[in-house]
């Protein structure tokens, strides 16, 4: 079973990503159990989605992050700073229940296209 949505869409000169999460599309279960592994996978997916849509992390304007538990916030914060560096976009982080058991993080982004 594949997700019924694209990883990113273009509109009005912007790239909008879908919610990106460390999920095995064949089983719709998390690929990893550890937060660090899910985070690494999600950031890799973000790079791929942005590049595939003609953008990049440096052109990202806004990130929305959803965490399953607030204890993951320090790790997310450190990874965000390292991943984006001086080109860090605006950001919102929300602690919430995620749609798949064992899922610890999901992100979505808006970036300038090509």
UniProtKB/TrEMBL annotation:
Superkingdom of origin: Bacteria
Pfam family, one: Ribonuc_L-PSP
Gene Ontology CC terms: cytosol
CDD domains: YjgF_YER057c_UK114_family
InterPro entries: RutC-like_sf, YjgF/YER057c/UK114
A single GO molecular function term of this UniProt record: deaminase activity
UniProt cross-references to PANTHER family, sorted A to Z: 2-IMINOBUTANOATE/2-IMINOPROPANOATE DEAMINASE RIDA, PROTEIN HMF1-RELATED
Protein family per UniProt: Belongs to the RutC family.
Stated name of the protein: RidA family protein
